[in-house]
Amino acid sequence: MEVSLLNVRITFQKNGVAVDGIGNHKNTWADYYSCHATASGEAGKQTSEANVAATVVDESDISFTVRYCKKASMIDSTGYRVVFGGGIYDILAVDHMNYKKKCIKFKCRKARR
Known about the structure:
Layout: E1 8-19, E2 25-41, E3 49-52, E4 55-58, E5 61-67, H1 70-73, E6 80-84, E7 87-95, E8 103-110
Antiparallel strand pairs: 1-2, 1-6, 2-5, 3-4, 5-8, 6-7, 7-8
């Protein structure tokens, strides 16, 4: 993998449960790992929008490729998300690129808020 292609900074956040002073449980997101990545949009789907219930919904798909490391290899699609450029992206799939331990690709979709 060419290092010069890793030109954007992304942060992976892990989902957890926090308990407040009176015992209420609530979901929280905490920073787990930050690294440089290559961001690539899917052809034709990068700026797609859908009309749902009379509102315009951004359905942007983007893929992030990071260098392999132990922390990045532990990330799955259920308990983690990506923060990039002020936007939050849900992880749809994790591709370990034939398990050669060189890079990992995360296919993501912009989260609705």
